[in-house]
Amino acid sequence: MTARTLAALALSLTLAACATGQSPGVDVSPVRQVPQASTLPAGWEHGAFMEVYVRGFQDSDGDGIGDLRGLTQRLDYLQALGIRGLWLMPITASGDHAHGYAVTDYRAIEPAYGSLADFDELVRQAHARGIGIVLDYVINHSSDQNPLFKQSASGKTNPWRDWYVWEDAKPQGWSIFDKDPWTMTPTGAYFAQFGSPMPDFNLRNPDVVRYHLDSLRFWVNHGADGFRIDAVGHLFENGKDGWSMQPENYPFLAKVRRELDIDHPHVMVCESPADPIGFAAPSACGSAFAFGHSDALVKAGRGDEQAIHEVADYFVKAPDTMATMVSNHDWFAGHRLWDAMRGDAARVRVAAAAYLLQPGTPYVYYGEELGMSEVGSAEHDGRLRGPMSWTPAGGFSTGKPYSAPSSNLATNNAQAERADPRSTLAFYTAMLGLRNTHSSIATGRYAGPRVDGQVLSFRRVDASEQTVVVINYGPVAGAADVTGLPANARLQRLYPAASDAPGTAPAAGADGRLAVPAAPLSVQVFLVSR
Ligand SMILES: [Ca+2]
What we know:
Bound molecules: calcium ion
Radius of gyration: 24 Å
Strand content: 15-25%
Shape: globular
């Protein structure tokens, strides 16, 4: 434990949160935020992130379940890949023994994942490698096994009754995701948008909001660099026809950011498939996952010309605070990239190149950088959440893993791909290397996007440099008609390395225009020099 966390604990008051003085069975005491001096390099939040399912990343003790110590052991791999931030799917104690979104204690580590001391050590080791840690925080609902809900359900006069949403009689006429969100109990009916095991909090109760702010501060004080907030379109309801995307959601999230003081260098990134750009606004979360863009990236990878145009146009309007991706842990968001590209490694590369080189903060889903496939013997979300493929034999656990391995473990694993300069891992490492060494790619303006046939090109421009990206999604050779370059500018090849693509540097005409040849299913990146 660090001196900083000791100080934080000393400041964590032990007053009972409830006027009655009763304890609900979990820590609900106030937490005062301790100012954090970030040790991360400036701009860390513009580097690529990885979404990590801790259960599936690395098991350290042979019980077949990934854990925090295992993740810490693999930080060198992440650093070598060029990852600058991790989004950890929920690591708080949960009642589901799987995804972690059914939280039973917001201030405790899931026992299968380790201890709070393990978390402190993970943060220390990650920060030492320039990697920030963003935690998944589930503010809309908890587990029905959470002691707070058990209190709430125990009787109408319980002090925690109003922490969840109750009615004496079951309301009629509701349907959410084709299910009745109300569950009848001996003391009344409670509301649960995501099914009866995950009851919704009553976020109109100021005590509930205070509790969540204090719990978020608890993790900030333990060194968390930000939060991914789950299901932000579902926080507030206004009757059976107003159960999602209500106007109260947006200012609520802005208030959380304001009260937490977690803006720069901390990040807050929200999940709303229905309104990504709206929630990315400064008047809400400041950043949100680019659902929709993710679908276009995948379809473009398959050569769909309409989708290539959508990819080209996205950052003309979308803010550069978008969190971009090509897949995640949820089945509704689509297949793992390898499966979406039907195992065509060249198409995986072109599909990934756009989001790794465009504005926004890319979130690589763990194993994506290996072309890791889904778990063939699992269904739905389970297909997406297999153990990380470290070696041809697995390398994830010395025991029996919680899940069957990925279907392509024998070929697409970290050990095999590290030895192959043409592997998917080598490609991701090269793309993240460009992002980490060229300021225009990390934070530059998005300029001149255009599509010529199936060839996408765009420029990235900042005060110190300009880069040109050319991606051919087609199976035949094409060319990008790049315009807007300085007169007679020369293009120095950054990727692929000049030794892999010999020839003289292409040069623009006096009109700043240049046709760049593009081989089938290829990615090229150039630095513009006069
Ligand atoms: Ca374990």
